[in-house]
Amino acid sequence: xxxxxxxxxxxxxxxxxxxxxxxxxxxxxxxxxxxxxxxxxxxxxxxxxxxxxxxxxxxxxxxxxxxxxxxxxxxxxxxxxxxxxxxxxxxxxxxxxxxxxxxxxxxxxxxxxxxxxxxxxxxxxxxxxxxxxxxxxxxxxxxxxxxxxxxxxxxxxxxxxxxxxxxxxxxxxxxxxxxxxxxxxxxxxxxxxxxxxx
Length: 198
What we know:
The protein has 198 residues and is an all-alpha fold. The chain has a single domain, classed as Serine Threonine Protein Phosphatase 5, Tetratricopeptide repeat (Alpha Horseshoe). It has helices spanning 2-17, 20-23, 31-58, 62-74, 82-94, 98-110, 118-130, 134-146, 154-166, 170-179, 188-197. Helix 6 packs antiparallel against helix 7 (118-130) and helix 8 runs antiparallel to helix 9. It starts with a helix and ends with a helix.
């Protein structure tokens, strides 16, 4: 009798220890299995998107080239391919899309996927700014103002940083404050008041 009671207690403890679904032959998926399945689905979609961007870029669609370059640079939808990203950005830049010039300039200044060349990077940022890319204006302005990749050109740097800041590119505005850049057309007394406030 004692053995039966002990066996019953052991079985009861075992039944309580398993999830209810497992007690009736149903096995729930773990969070890890669900996360893996979601990741596989997301990766499959990203690969399809990258293939579509590749086809669009090959057909001369600059928006497709931009999507492809970003995916190649970050490794989304396939392996990271910095040389491929540089080629895609160059195609955009040659098509007068400033985002492509900025992307290629970034890779060139950093020496990622192409040889590091700050002079060429600065020229590409200037081209990006000329084509209307606000981040290109900010980067070119910073390089010109500080003399990175060429001679120091405070006026050109100020102009480009001001352009970017006026288009509400926050980094450019912050960088202007850090460098002490001011618009030569503004009232110097207002500028002094602003400096005292910071």
